[in-house]
Write a structure and sequence with these properties.
By secondary structure, the chain is an alpha+beta fold.
Length: 843
């Protein structure tokens, strides 16, 4: 039977001398041997030895750039192979990236791809005893720049040569990420001992036909020299059913099919339960019945189709799961740490649980990152999160010559087989923005006929998916409109990316159209204050202070943030005001788009917000910041992606109210419509009953009596229905006659939980509690709220070790206050004594 064993510690790490640049390696590193952790990377090992500053703090990123330009070597000793098995393999699940592997100084192999595993036969070298293992890494820059010199330049959205090496593109920096060009043994390494044959690949194709499930396991074996003339038996077992097949001598591939009558189906969590089944595949010697190898994978029975049918509006892009059309409530996922070997299974689950808690049901694994660890997809299976998986190509022209095509094919084949058992995986996508870039970013003249990746996306990758994983759809790229004769980012067809609004236009331009599927859009905001205070040493903090500038990677990012504020607010006079208002604007911008597009279901069949997470502390588009703290956008997504959404929409026909129902049951929605004066009194009232069927939208015009003669500078509209509220202001904030906010705060605490109740005495617009201002670990359960006089909201706060009512005003913000900067209003002595305090407001 195959036996696997982890390699013994310790490992060591050392910098290799560079004859061309001997001064590159700092004195505190040159010539030293460091303890190394495997899996891991050079950066984390040097940080553990205090030989490298934390690159996430201040501008330390710049001080550690030399690491990515340096060659490194990991070393350990391997134990003897022993005589119990015919074959011993050294197996690397991931090497980052360009490496030479030697045993006792003899080269046994080389690698040039972070996205795949490697296996080397070490039976002979280890037969005589233990041996020294060295894994020497050449700088990824050296490899990429040499290949660029050989193959010629290719257009790239960033100045770094990531498109010449099969490595995580965002290692070279992005408009939200640091430039940390890593090296190391980033995934597990082990020795495998086996005889006769082993299971080289198990590729289960799962189908549901007429209510019954079938698993066809395509099994590939590798044989030893002594196993070539042996008949082998492969068996597959699932749900109490078993089937087997014989592999005659000389044959290495066989299909084994098992049928499960009426299995329970796997559903996205927004549609149903997540039933899965263990699939056991075993390999035996047919003559002796001696067990040789075994694999266990978990599969789920479900169907997934991609509806791209043409209609009067263009052509659709809509997921259909188990026959049910889905509005995808999505987020884009980037690597959760720029030093990806630090992302643990627990961290994957925590981040994905945050996504699920925000009612997200689709996660797009973006093409500038990696094929994530198995723990990511396991968590998605269990949590009911659909996964859209990009192949790792992003924002650049990729050569189709030299060593790259073979590497792309090898990584694609390995990862399709590795990931295809997961029922959560619903789409393979060829690339991020490269088909669009070729059309619109000036590439054609620069390329002058050179290859750029088209053959990967429209030929190689779809062939591999069709061969290995034919039950799952493939799409050539995002954005992509389905045909080469259409513009790749045509909103009438396929997937659309909307970035003009952030880069050049106001977010209200989201209302100008209805794309079929919005695969990327978003708005920036800074992370939580506690995250900034940990990562940025500037005191006082300012939007343009040196550390803040370094942690803003987008081109003219702060300028775009300011342009986003300018139509609505006077220029903020304090950092606190700027911080609150930019976070609020991020939430409002995303809400503007999603409310509009969801109200046009099924014409629009999904939105995938850029982005869920961050890989370090940075001002970005994320809903969860680099320290894992929730920004106001996260709470807004929870509202926007709920099964039922109430929204007021300003349409060419007039103001409308829409009840958006993505639940499986009909929604009889009695809506209370109000026109409210700035002082909080009701100017007019009406009721409408909206009847939204299952997974349907019901709309109605707001009665003319509520709209006629309204003063948009002094009046606004509210729609209330069964605990849901929609608010519509026709005037921008700086043109509305807000009263100065007045509200009461009551604080109670017990058993580690505090409750902060804010009771409005006036209109209070977009009240937000920034819980991390109470304590860095404090978390609230509520997002922004607009209150009328007499209404209240209660924040349940956990992680606040010593609740103090006097601290609360400094953590509460709202839009409506008098002119000037944000100020904390001190609590009156009698209020402080009863655990209450006056409020904090921002203009």
């Amino acid at each position: 039977m195959l036996v696997a064993s982890a390699l013994p510690q310790p490992w060591t790490l050392r910098a290799l001398p560079s004859p061309d640049r001997p001064e590159q390696v700092p004195a505190q590193v040159a010539g030293r041997v460091f303890a190394a952790q495997v899996p891991g990377c050079v950066h984390t090992d040097l940080m553990a030895a205090r030989a490298l500053p934390d690159p996430y703090l201040d501008a330390n990123e710049e001080q550690v750039a030399w690491v990515g330009r340096t060659d490194w070597a990991y070393s350990t000793r391997l134990p003897p192979a022993g005589g119990a098995h015919e074959r011993t393999d050294l197996v690397f699940d991931g090497l980052d990236t360009v490496a030479e592997i030697t045993l006792d100084g003899t080269r046994i192999g080389a690698t040039r791809n972070m996205h795949r595993g490697y296996r080397f036969d070490v039976t002979a070298p280890l037969s005589g005893g233990e041996a020294r293992l060295d894994v020497a890494f050449t700088s990824a820059y050296t490899e990429a720049e040499a290949l660029r010199e050989k193959l010629g330049p290719r257009p790239n959205a960033y100045p770094e040569p990531f498109n010449y090496v099969r490595k995580m593109a965002s290692s070279f920096g992005w408009d939200w990420g640091p430039t940390l060009v890593t090296a190391g043994i980033w995934r597990p390494v082990r020795l495998e001992h086996w005889s006769t044959a082993r299971l080289a690949a198990v590729a289960p194709q799962v189908r549901v036909v007429d209510g019954d499930g079938t698993v066809t396991a395509r099994v590939t074996v590798e044989r030893t020299a002594g196993g070539r003339d042996r008949d082998l038996r492969v068996a597959a077992a699932i749900a109490g059913r078993r089937a087997e097949a014989v592999l005659p001598a000389g044959q290495d591939t066989v299909d084994v099919s098992v049928t499960v009558p009426a299995p329970k189906l796997w559903w996205p969590h927004t549609l149903g339960a997540q039933d899965t089944y263990p699939l056991d595949v075993t390999l035996d010697d047919a003559a002796s019945a001696q067990p040789l190898d075994r694999r266990r994978r978990t599969v789920g029975f479900r169907t997934v189709e991609l509806d791209t049918a043409a209609d009067e509006s263009g052509s659709a892009f809509r997921f259909v799961v188990n026959g049910v059309p889905v509005f995808a409530r999505g987020v884009n996922w980037i690597p959760d740490d720029a030093l990806v070997s630090r992302v643990t299974p627990e961290r994957y689950r925590a981040r994905l649980e945050q996504a699920k808690a925000a009612n997200v049901d689709l996660v797009r694994v973006w093409g500038g990152g990696i094929y994530e660890d198995e723990a990511f997809y396991d968590a998605c299976d269990e949590l009911g999160m659909m996964v859209w998986q990009d192949f790792p190509f992003a924002c650049a022209a990729y050569p189709e010559e030299g060593p790259l095509p073979a590497e792309v094919e090898a990584e694609a084949r390995e990862n399709v087989v590795r990931l295809m058992p997961h029922p959560s995986l619903v789409l393979w996508n060829g690339n991020n923005e490269n088909l669009w870039g070729h059309e619109d970013w000036g590439w054609k003249d620069e390329l002058a006929g050179a290859s750029w990746g088209r053959g990967y996306y429209l030929d190689l990758l779809p062939r591999i998916v069709a061969e290995l994983d034919p039950t799952r759809p493939y799409w050539p790229g995002s954005p992509w409109s389905g045909r080469e004769d259409l513009h790749p980012n045509d909103p009438r067809h396929g997937t659309t990316h909307l970035w003009e609004e952030w880069n050049r236009r106001p977010y209200t331009d989201y209302l100008a159209g209805v794309p079929r599927f919005v695969a990327e859009f978003g708005w920036q905001a800074p992370p939580a204050l506690a995250t900034l205070l940990r990562a940025v040493g500037d005191r006082p903090l300012a939007p343009d202070s040196p550390g803040m500038r370094h942690h803003q990677k987008a081109e003219d990012g702060n300028g775009k943030l300011d342009r986003g504020l300018a139509p609505y607010f006077a220029a903020p006079e304090s950092f606190d005001s700027w911080h609150y208002l930019t976070q609020l604007t991020q939430a409002r911008a995303v809400a503007t788009g999603i409310e509009h597009w969801r109200a046009h279901w099924p014409l629009c069949a999904g939105t995938v917000v850029w982005q869920l997470n961050d890989c370090w502390p940075v001002t970005s588009w994320a809903a969860v910041d680099g320290d894992g703290r929730l920004k106001p956008l996260w709470f807004e997504l929870r509202r926007l992606y709920a099964d039922r959404l109430l929204t007021l929409q300003d349409t060419p026909e007039g103001l409308e109210v829409a009840a958006v129902n993505q639940s499986a049951s009909a929604w009889q929605a009695p809506v209370d419509l109000l026109r409210v004066r700035a002082d909080g009194t009701v100017a007019a009232r009406a009721g409408v009953l909206l009847a939204a069927g299952p997974r349907a939208v019901a709309r109605a015009r707001v009665p003319e009596d509520l709209v006629r003669d309204a003063d948009p500078g002094k009046e606004f509209w509210i729609a209330d229905c069964q605990g849901l509220r929609a608010v519509h202001f026709a005037a921008v904030d700086k043109d509305f006659a807000y009263p100065a906010a007045d509200y009461r705060i009551d604080v109670t605490a017990d058993d580690g939980t505090a409750r902060i109740t804010v009771t409005a005495r006036t209109l209070v617009r977009d009240l937000v509690l920034q819980a991390d201002r109470l304590h860095p670990s404090a978390v609230t359960d509520q997002g922004r709220a607009t209150l009328l006089p007499g209404e209240q909201v209660t924040h349940t706060v956990t992680g606040w070790p010593a609740p103090d009512a006097q601290a609360v005003p400094g953590a509460l913000f709202c839009v409506n206050a008098g002119p000037g900067a944000a100020t904390a209003v001190p609590a009156a002595p009698d209020e402080a004594a009863t655990g209450t305090a006056a409020g904090r407001t921002v203009s």
